[in-house]
Design brief:
Order of helices and strands: EEHHHEEHEEHEHHHHEEEEEEEEHEHE
CATH topology of the largest domain: PH-domain like
CATH class of the largest domain: Mainly Beta
Number of strands: 17
Radius of gyration: 23 Å
Organism: Asarcornis scutulata
Oligomer: single chain
Number of helices: 11
Domain Ras-associating: 94-185
InterPro entries: PH-like_dom_sf (IPR011993), PX_dom (IPR001683), PX_dom_sf (IPR036871), RA_dom (IPR000159), SNX17-31_FERM_F1 (IPR048763), SNX17-31_FERM_F2 (IPR048767), SNX17/31_FERM (IPR040842), SNX17_FERM-like_dom (IPR037836)
Number of domains: 4
Shape: globular
GO biological process, one term: endocytic recycling
Strand content: 15-25%
Structural class: alpha+beta
Helix content: 25-40%
Protein name: Sorting nexin-17
Largest sheet: 10 strands, mixed
């Protein structure tokens, strides 16, 4: 059997014959010219070298299918992965209660089947909260790890090829939770969400939580104004004021390491506003800040490496520590591309953020709507929950943390670039590796932009 890892975590175990069955089904549905070539059958027993060669070929095959815009989102491919996940974890199909957190720590309990996919669970949570169907697409479920101070470290956005109940229970660790958060980047979409009472309450609870955790920066005067709006229960005005604050709508990641501007720099990365924001601690202990716009990333990739020796047994014995890196190629100036690497256990979540920013830019560019990004499946309605649950109002804000330092600008070159014509980058091809994400929102820079 072959272990399939998704986002660095064991997802399922499958046999060659099962993968061949998937391949034949995809060929039948989409035609031989669309589906990538599959590693051939062998008559005789494979040598160790041939076993390794087949493993590599199968890995490339699965990556190629996943990255194909038609095959990767097909129900055939996704249901294969979901079924394999459930069989591998040996969790029978039965009715269970799943606890989903809101940003303010409130628990929403939904009755689902263990075999319900991410979209089913999201709909069940929306139904329990009485969130209207046309707003479901603005929210997503995220797998998070609860930290000691009550904050959350983001592991990944739950995908359509997994079963949330199986994903969280198979980790056998109560620190892992599922949380509901908004899943778009452009704050102009807040207007759609705030039209409805439940959408407004969810957005308000998330904004208060992000301010309390120091993700959104506020000074004393802004804090006083926010608290006054909270006391008046002016939720819309509260969000409007928060939208003007630094890092509104950003996801903040755990401290990690970067090679920019030099190797081994400690950095706090935040994703939002179509950029990755760096707060870098330089070797002289000075903290500087800069932003990398997603429209100037030519391509990016996530790589993982496992140390060969197990070394001293750490907190999890018998399990090697996988090192994850996100590297992106950035247009620093008109003719200068430079690779920037972030070494972080959250590298995959960072990559997912970059991809969703690009997707959102492309949808907007083509005149599409984010509402249409949520595809409702045709087969049957979900079991609707009888009892609704209200979103509780969060408590008033505490005083701001005076220890948060103001940041100095890293470089005048790292300014924003307006999104003009989107050039279809061929970077995924000319790099010659499957694991590169070519960025269709990438732009060259003219002299007038520098």
């Amino acid at each position: 059997a072959y272990n399939i890892h998704v986002n660095g975590v064991l997802h399922c175990r499958v046999r060659y014959s099962q993968l061949l069955g998937l391949h034949e089904q995809l060929r039948k549905e989409y035609g031989a010219n669309v589906v990538p070539a599959f590693p051939p059958k062998k008559i005789f027993t494979l040598t160790p070298a041939e076993v390794e060669q087949r493993r590599e070929q199968l890995e490339k095959y699965m990556q190629a299918v996943r990255q194909d815009p038609t095959l990767g989102v097909s129900e055939t491919f996704n249901s294969f992965l979901r079924k394999a996940q459930q069989e591998t974890q040996q969790i029978p199909t039965e009715e269970v209660v799943l606890e989903v957190l809101l940003s303010n720590g409130q628990k929403v309990k939904v009755t689902i089947l263990t075999s319900d996919q991410t979209e089913d669970v999201l709909e069940a949570v929306a139904s329990k909260l009485d969130l209207p169907d046309d707003l479901i697409g603005y929210f997503s479920l995220f797998l998070v790890r609860e930290t000691k101070d009550g904050a959350f470290s983001f592991v990944r956005k739950l995908q359509e090829f997994e079963l949330p109940y199986v994903s969280v229970t198979s980790l056998h660790n109560s620190e892992f939770r599922i949380i509901l958060r908004k899943s778009y980047w452009d704050s102009s979409y807040d207007d759609d969400v705030m039209e409805h009472r439940v959408g407004l309450n969810l957005l308000y609870a998330q904004t208060v939580s992000d301010i309390e955790h120091g993700w959104i920066l506020v000074n004393k005067e802004q804090h006083r104004q926010l608290k006054s709006l909270q006391e008046k229960v002016s939720k819309k005005e509260f969000i409007r004021l928060a939208q003007t604050l630094k890092y509104y709508g950003y996801l903040k990641f755990d401290p990690c390491v970067t090679d920019f501007p030099e190797k081994g720099c400690h950095v706090v990365v935040s994703a939002g506003n179509n950029e990755l924001n760096f707060q870098v601690r330089l070797p002289n202990e000075q903290i500087k800040e800069g932003s990398f716009k997603v429209t100037r990333m030519r391509c990016w990739r996530v790589t993982s490496s496992v140390p060969m020796s197990n070394g001293p047994s750490g907190s999890s014995p018998g399990k090697s520590e996988v090192k994850l890196e996100l590297a992106f190629e950035y247009l620093m100036s008109k003719d200068r591309l430079q690779w920037v690497t972030i070494t972080s256990p959250q590298a995959i979540m960072l990559s997912i953020c970059l991809q969703s920013m690009v997707d959102e830019l492309m949808v907007k560019k083509s005149g599409g709507s984010i509402r249409k990004m949520f595809r409702r499946r045709a087969n049957g309605a979900l079991r609707r929950s009888d009892s609704q649950q209200a979103v509780k109002s969060p408590p008033l804000l505490d005083s701001p943390d005076a220890s948060r330092e103001p940041m100095a600008k890293l470089s005048s070159k790292l300014t924003s670039v307006s999104l003009r014509g989107i050039s279809h980058s061929s970077s995924a091809n000319d790099v010659g590796a499957n694991d590169f994400h070519g960025n269709y929102a990438f732009e060259g820079i003219g002299d007038e932009d520098l």
